Amino acid sequence: MTFKSMRERLLASSMICGAAILGLSATQAVAQEGTVSEVVVTGSRIPQPNLTSASPVTVVGAEDVQTRGVTRTEDLVNQLPQVFAAQGSSYANGATGTATVDLRGLGPNRTLVLVDGRRLQAGTPAAGAGNTAPDLNFIPSALIERVELVTGGASAVYGADAVAGVVNFIMQKDFEGVRLDLQYSGFQHKNDSRVQDVIRARQAGALDPTQFPIPEEDVWDGGTTDLNLVIGANTADGRGNVTAYVGYRNVQAVTQDQRDYSACALGNNPTGPHGFSCGGSGTTAPAQFIPGGGSESALTLDPTAPGAFRAYSSARDAYNFAPSNYYQRPDERYVLGAFAHYELNERAEVYTQLMFMDDHTVAQIAPSGIFGQNININCNDNPYLSASMADALCNAGIDQLPDDPNRPETLGPNSDADLDPNNGQQASVAILRRNVEGGGRQADLRHTAYRGVVGLRGDLGDGWHDVYGQLYGVVTYQQVYLNEFALSRVLKANDVVVDPQTGQPACRSAVPLLAGSNADPNCRPYNVFALGGPSAESLAYVQTPGFQNGEYAQTVVSGTVTGDLGQYGVKTPWTEEGIGVALGTEYRREKLDLNTDVAFQTGDLLGQGGATLPSQGSYDLYELFGEARIPLVTDMPFFHSLSAELGYRWSDYSLGFSTSTYKVAGDWAPVEDIRFRASFNRAVRAPNIVELFSTSNVVLNGTTDPCAGATPTFTQEQCARTGVTAAQYTHVAANVAEQYNGLTGGNPDLDPEKSDTVSVGTVITPTFLPGFSLSVDWYNIQVEKRIGQIGQDVTLERCALTGDPFFCDLIQRAPGTGSLWLSNNGYIIDTTFNTGKLEVEGVDVEATYRMDFADYSAFSALENYGGLSFNFQGSYLKDYLVTTLPGDTPFDCAGQYGNVCTGSAVPAAAPMPEWRHKARLTWRSPWDLEISGTWRHISEIAVDNPDYVGPDSKLKAMDYFDLAGTWGVRENVTLRFGVNNIFDKDPPLVTQSNCPSGPCSGNTYPSTYDALGRYLFVGARMDF
């Protein structure tokens, strides 16, 4: 067989999958061509007679790119009901700068991403990324021919990580000519939300009403420019092709103050407008001071009496951190690449793929500051303290620090004989002061990725073919973190005295006579006691950038041989089709190297929630694999076809373990119109480098402390189990921002996860209704020895309610205060290890139909008006069971969201509705005009805390309607246009108590819901 015929097979595969999108069944597509007998589809390496995969395969075609106005590949896959939102453009707090895909809500690490059947390299080496999932930004959406999803374990075919399934991006590779594609898109929204009542109520009682702005009524923003050029040419002898592409994308930022429902951080207030309140952070400007370690003693500056304190009030003084957060990150991306192949002779062909990306984005969140750090305030010689201030801070009943033997006992204006008892002493005061003068914290993120594939395909004769390939992928990463405070400088800048030579306030470290070994002549005093704020000089001193850089490299060498044993008579007596086999071997190496500067390593950057440490690691593995497709019966009564599929893969890791994965599948069509399929897949996921080798450190990782505040949720007895003393009970400071410390990090002793996927389904393609197909598939996925975290909130609850030493020993409260956030001495151990179990069960439904008006007499009046195409994809999530540790009773997150079901206790970073669907109807006119309408539905979701009562106890069901069209203006010019979320629906809103940082932003889940309003796009494609 020549490579021309092999290319015909691939072309047929493309045609058949595209036909499925338009409503044709696979068998009908083959019959219409009549010349093609074998195709290759994702889910197996063996050529098959038609599109009859025993495992469910969902296909997304280029038409979906057109009708959605997609410029980001993440938006193309996130529309599918089987996909849950993960890292993407809406992430600001916790953003890695990447976009990832999450099948079944099992986490991006458990979804294997392929490009033309080959593994895509990791997306980032960034510390804290939590995963090494590939970055979808790397894939140019303009070159996507189709996307094939196998939803279920596929490790026997493609290797580790395919626990939830495989997403395979098939790229255009045989283009000829020149194509210029350009598009502009953006958002339009009318701000008329009822939340405006909440904002106005907060304005009325706020110390600074300007912190709570109401945006303009009509806004246009988030503009995106996308330009792509594709050039393809065949070789002069017709034996090869080169397809090259270059693309540019520019995305404009949207901040949360541009939408009324995200302009303030919402809290639960039964007496407030619509049950909401505008909350905020206790890190404020002017500062909040906690001299006694308990929130009831908190103070702030009195604006009516300079030089005096008054009691801090959250309702009046809390800082609105929402406005400056990015709802959509700005992004600038360049892509460049080429696909080429050349037929050396009738039996050999070489091929290559070269891909490049440079992506630059900025993640911005609220300004940094001093976040409750205990700072030593000199009590008697601080020129910024009035006598009443000094008395409030230094005589608050807290322990005084001992005298500093390295400084004189007397200093400054109070250095005469009648010394205050506090002279020469310091008081430890928790200070919370927001850096409103410096602007938002910005993570300037850049990823530069390269991918090269070189391979050889050969025809060995007698029906045997081999494929050999070598893949190298690398991503380099750079981060510059801006507008941060350095703790080491803050401590110096707050140790203020009067310079005896100038008589002016100065840092003790900048006064030569007093500095000693702590000298820092650059220090400028940072005045936290002034209503007007600190000086520009002091701000320049305490602010410092942080730097990270790293690289993740992947090398793959693989070889595969496929053949048909039928030529040797290896077949069953009931069919003429022989047994197809595929045998192969693969070598893969993964390597990570992350470097951070001293500021990150020491935890000196106050707004980071902890240190970011360097990490390095690598591993490699060798694999052997094989597959067999066994036709059992064909063309017999009640057995139009019956076949089985077998697969096995053995993997040997340099980490000290080996794994075995396998699959068993069957396919039975009693008649041509109906087919039944079933499969069992054993899949594995080996721990990735981040999970193995990331260095442990204390970071902000939890969302609750039920023992904090004046009225704790837990009883004194329950809190005592978590380490709270009787004296501390009702005096532990609560974090208004609901962020608490956890000790996180990797674990080199992790074992691989194991998962079993069972799938049973049916496919109906009735001959009496040409153009119609329906598939219904039940699935069950169970993941054992899950690699993950218990979750800080779960640990606290288990300890308090049960007193189990396993959980209670993980809690380390700060001495004295009992806090889990005021210092790094208070935290909960939440490192990575093999925990419990995940089980996901549900049903997928897909239906397609295509008809021409001329084919039906009932539509004879419309026979000159083209036809209709219909596509429906729905997914029902019956169970999402999480077993924290072996022996625990599982809890079910299906249909729920919140701190447990969208927090660190589960891998999903998105709400999990029980039902989602997408239905599209397309009118195909005879005038090169197509109009498509799409209905997207997300079912109602309840909060995961059954005792919670609030306006966000349930998030209402959402229905979005989209309209799009394409028009062939000329033979070589096609326009496209469309609007998504036609009715500009506001997203469902959640309070901060149910809003984990990262997936939840702007009081909603913007990767799940249309958070920015009505999306409009217009584009053109020109072929030359």
UniProtKB/TrEMBL annotation:
Please list where the region (Disordered) is annotated.
398-422
Q: Which UniProt keywords apply?
A: Cell outer membrane, Membrane, Receptor, Signal, TonB box, Transmembrane, Transmembrane beta strand, Transport
Q: How does it sit in the membrane?
A: Multi-pass membrane protein
Cell compartments where the protein resides = Cell outer membrane
Instruction: Report if keyword Signal is assigned.
Output: yes
Write out the residue ranges of the motif TonB C-terminal box. Answer: 1007-1024
Q: Where is the TonB-dependent receptor plug domain?
A: 52-166
What Pfam families does UniProt report for this protein, alphabetically?
Plug, TonB_dep_Rec_b-barrel
The answer to whether keyword Transmembrane applies is yes
In terms of domain of life, where is this protein from? Bacteria
- Domain spans labelled TonB-dependent receptor-like beta-barrel: 415-982
Q: Which InterPro entries match?
A: Beta-barrel_TonB, Beta-barrel_TonB_sf, Plug_dom, Plug_dom_sf, TonB-dep_rcpt-like, TonB_rcpt_CS
**Where does the signal sequence lie?**
1-31
Q: Which residues form a coiled coil?
A: none
Family per UniProt?
Belongs to the TonB-dependent receptor family.
**PANTHER family reported for this sequence:** PTHR47234, TONB-DEPENDENT RECEPTOR
Please identify the protein, giving its name as recorded.
Outer membrane receptor protein involved in Fe transport
Q: Which organism is it from?
A: Phenylobacterium koreense
